[in-house]
Each structure stands twice: as C-alpha cells, then as structure tokens.
Amino acid sequence: MYRGASSSNRFLMERLEYLLLRLLLGLLARLPWWVIHCLCRLSAFLLEHVLHYRRRVIRENLANSFPEKSEAERRKIERDFYLQFAYNFLSTPKLLRLPSHEIMERHFLIPDLTPLERAFEEHPCAFAALGHLGNWELFSTGQLYFNQLGVTMDQVYRPLKSKLMDEFFARQRQAFGATLTPKAQVARRLVEHLNSTEGKTLMAMITDQAPGMGHVHYFTLFLNQATAILDGVERLARKYNLPVLYFDIERVSPVRFVGRFRLITDSPRELPPLAITEQYTRLLEETIRRDPASWLWSHRRWKRHLSDYPEATLSEALRGQE
C-alpha cells in the first residue's frame, strides 16, 4: 500500500514537472528575441553571482585546464560560460521552432558536406564524434543538411530517469527527421543500420563525458590533465571498418554556430589501436582552446583518476611522464 502510494506520488510529481516544463518552453518559444537576450543575461548573472551554480567545479576545471592563463582571464571565460549556458536553455525552444530555412541561414550552418559525402561513398554507415560545445541541442537540426545526401542521423543518447521528460526531449530531438538510439542499444542498432537497404546512417555520439566505471580503458593528456577517454566510437568503427568524422563547432554568437566535419579515418583497421580515440581528443582540445567558454565546464569531467585504473592503457604523452 505504502509502496503504491509512493509510486503514485512520484508519477504525479513527474507529471507536474512535465506540464510546467512544456508551459515554460512554449512561453519561451513565443517571446521576442530582445526579451530572450535580456532573460539570458539576467539568468547568467543569477547563476554566477547569486546561485553560484557549480562554481567550485567550474573554477577547478578551468584552473587545471589553463594554468598558463591569469586569474582574470579564467574569470572572463567563466562569465562567458555562464552566459552561453543560459542561452543554451532559454533560447533553444525558440530556435527549434523557427522555419527550417531560417535555422540554416542564421543559426546553424554547415557550409561544406564534402567530408561527409566522401565518407559514404563506400560505406552505408559512418560515425560523427563531437563534444558538448556551443548549443549541442541544435545539432539535431543538422538533419536538414543531411537530407541532401540521403543520410539519416541517428543520435546516441542517455535516457532520462523521468519517462515523461525523456519522451519530451526525444520528440524535440527528432523533430527534424533524425532518430534516437539509447546508449545501451548502440551495437544492436548499428547492425540494423548495416543490414538495412533504406538509406545511409550517420551515428552521432557526444563523447566528451567521463566514462562509466566499467568503461575506463584509455587515459591520455587532455587539457593538461590525465583524462579517461571514451573509446566506444573507435571500438565499433574498428569492428565494422566504418569511417569516423569529428564534428567541429564554431560559436559565432550565443545563437549562431558553424559546424564542420573533419575526417579522422575511413579505414579504422589500418590504424594502431586507440589512434582514432587519440586523434578525436586532440581535435576536441583544439576546438576548446579556440573558444573555451563554449564547452560545458560545469560537468565533473575528471572524476576518474589514473591511479584508480592501473590496467588502463596510457597514451604516449602520459607514458613519457612516468
């Protein structure tokens, strides 16, 4: 009886949160841009100076990643990060409801599809690896470009605990024709794509999170720190010999981004083990150093410590430090 009541209360709370979120996002989508800009600046101020949202984590990450920068330079990155963070949540509902041509002309541009087109010349599937850069929710609108090549993007994601919230964001991310695959089902879904005759598939994976405890296989030097790197993309690409591309995101403004594909390899089996993962890490680091504030500094990226994983493979750079 008690257990049933608890489950019912939890469902009611999730339902209330879901309805409030839909109401809030619907309101944000209808606000004029000048109001959105004001709200983002106000929210950034509150997050930084009043709520101190994850300030300790952000400052620790920045200090360890950029020891060569002065305190004033790191504070500037911090302020810019909070502003972009606010834009990511408050401007996205409006961005995703704009006409397709307006998104492609003003907010998310992919000027050259040639690397992607070449990757599919001899392969039915390819991987795109990217990080939490700029407004990553806009990446689902990339399907507007991929339609030109007859390519469907399958976005790998981690389902939310709340089923209602998960369904809501899933609909949002599939609104432009892309599909979604839960992280636990990637291998099975990839086989389905390879056996399908209904077109070509780009498996898109955000791979800059800290690996789960059972998936720490490789450490390399990333932003001046020994870092556990996810190697799932390389494992699957090597198994089926599929191309891997890095998707670089350049932030032009808080609501305008340019994406560019960079081929890492179209023959994974010809490269040494972990070479793809290492190259992806170097490209991601390059993007972050170009525009530090556009990365998600509030997550605990370095919670896996090298000393806790003696069996992990080390990159050449880390071996040289031993």
Q: Summed up, what is this model?
A:
This protein has 322 residues and is an alpha/beta fold. The chain has helices at 2-30, 33-50, 55-65, 71-90, 92-95, 100-107, 114-119, 143-146, 163-173, 186-195, 232-240, 275-290, 316-319, and strands at 108-109, 125-130, 151-157, 179-182, 200-206, 218-222, 225-228, 244-253, 256-265, 313-314.
Structure description:
This protein is α/β, with parallel strands linked by helices and 322 residues long. 47% of the residues lie in helices and 18% in strands. The chain has 13 helices and ten strands. Strands 1-9-8-2-5-3-4 form a seven-stranded mixed β-sheet. Strand 3 (151-157), helix 9 and strand 4 (179-182) form a beta-alpha-beta unit. Helix 1 runs parallel beside helix 9 (163-173) and helix 2 crosses helix 4. The longest helix is centred in the N-terminal third of the chain and has 29 residues, at 2-30. The N and C termini lie far apart (59 Å). The model has no long low-confidence stretch (mean pLDDT 93).
